[in-house]
């Protein structure tokens, strides 16, 4: 499988008696957008974190490009996890400007500083965010910070991007910018899983929608098959 596969995954948080996930099977394929939709507490964030290899399932398998990441050694697991980036719903930015934040992801991957700066500028410009370049994290609105944290994740060049509530702070214009960015990444072969309450985003951007309820996948299908909103 070219991407991430969860097979019959069961998970509970340390100290909790209740299962957060109860036998979840899902595929997040490269070049495809999967939206996770469902009530608060249904398990969307938990699914993304397991898909990103951040938590270990109690039962079941998490496979990245066909390899069960919990059956290989730590360095191989890290190598596989590098192909996936999880973007937290609350923007977490580093000190420095928006440009520094985006460029940092490239520097981490060994891109020379000059090129990293140029590519970070291109990314911000391409998402109508040039005006944010020189702003520090305390000088940005919640929505601006959200856009920058998503662009930083994109700069890292993941093959699969896991977006948790990416439109939580975005106005209509920025939602449009994000939908365009998602379309662009998809055409470049990036796969995405997006946990969202924004049904319009799910309807517009997703190839498939999974309805999550009570730690299970209720149904999966095209937006028109499973969403009756839009
Ligand atoms: N750190 C944690 N410790 C214990 N239980 C947790 C923790 N995080 C989440 N849970 C529980 O796991 C279940 C799934 O939570 P999760 O955050 O995945 O839901 P969600 O679908 O993302 O909800 P929302 O729409 O509110 O973001 C819930 O019952 C929640 O209470
Ligand atoms: Mg959540």
How many individual β-strands?
10
Using the coordinates above, name the CATH class of the domain at 3-90 and 160-226: Alpha Beta
Number of helices: 8
What is the strand content?
15-25%
Instruction: Indicate the CATH topology of the domain at 3-90 and 160-226.
Output: Rossmann fold
Explain this structure to me?
By secondary structure, the chain is of the alpha/beta class. The chain is 36% helix and 25% strand. It has a domain at 3-90 and 160-226: P-loop containing nucleotide triphosphate hydrolases (Rossmann fold, 3-Layer(aba) Sandwich), CATH 3.40.50.300. The chain is built from 8 helices and 10 strands. The protein has a 6-stranded mixed beta sheet, with helices on both faces. The longest helix has 16 residues, at 172-187. Adenosine-5'-triphosphate is lined by residues 13, 16, 20, 38, 40-46, 195.
Could you give a short description of this structure?
With 230 residues, this protein is α/β, with parallel strands linked by helices. It is 36% helix and 25% strand.
């Amino acid at each position: 499988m070219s991407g991430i596969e969860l097979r019959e995954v069961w998970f509970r948080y340390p100290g909790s008696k209740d299962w957060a996930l109860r036998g979840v099977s899902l595929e997040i394929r490269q070049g495809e957008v999967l939206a996770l939709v469902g009530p608060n507490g249904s398990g969307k964030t938990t699914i993304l974190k397991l898909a990103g290899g951040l938590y270990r399932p109690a039962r079941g398998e998490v496979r990245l490009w066909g390899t069960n990441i919990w059956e290989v050694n730590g360095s191989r697991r890290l190598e596989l996890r590098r192909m996936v980036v999880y973007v937290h719903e609350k923007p977490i930015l580093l000190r420095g400007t928006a440009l520094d934040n985006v460029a940092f992801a490239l520097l981490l991957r060994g891109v020379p500083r000059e090129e990293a700066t140029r590519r970070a500028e291109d990314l911000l410009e391409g998402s109508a965010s040039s005006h944010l370049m020189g702003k520090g994290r305390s000088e940005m609105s919640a929505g601006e910070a959200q856009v920058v944290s998503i662009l930083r994740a994109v700069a890292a060049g993941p093959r699969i991007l896991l977006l948790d509530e990416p439109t939580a702070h975005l106005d209509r214009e920025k939602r449009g910018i994000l939908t365009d960015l998602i379309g662009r990444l998809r055409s470049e072969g990036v796969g995405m899983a997006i946990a969202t309450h924004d049904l319009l985003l799910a309807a517009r951007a997703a190839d498939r929608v999974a309805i999550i309820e009570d730690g299970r996948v209720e149904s999966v299908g095209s937006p028109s098959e499973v969403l009756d909103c839009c």
